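Milestone M4 deliverable, item 7.
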Amino acid sequence: MKPVIQEETTGCGIAAVANILGKSYAEMKAIANAMGIYASDTSLWSDTQYVRHLLAHSGVETSAEEIPFSSWEALPDQALLSIKHHQEGGKDYWHWVVFIRSETGACVLDSASYLDENIRTDFSQMQPKWFIQVFD
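Output delivered:
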């Protein structure tokens, strides 16, 4: 598994969807841009509808609501997680990552370009607030 790395500072939503769909960042960015979705739009990391729309466009179903995070063990086999929550001007923002559980174990695909390792298992270091289940 080779995680997609975001090529723009604010491209975590595009990269997360690319990780789920098995596409490159450039491929996913082209699809997103054709749909009027751009990494430079801060709504991409402050509104869940953009990633939902990108996934639905490719036939991938997601949970209708954000589900509060309770534990790593309680997560479904695939989910979009919101981490690094913060507020700017009274508006919530976060960083998108992808949680995957398989027969080889669980990990988080984190597209941040500054990380030494983008396949993360340092679960105690991540503080998810909620998740969106991704159905196969």
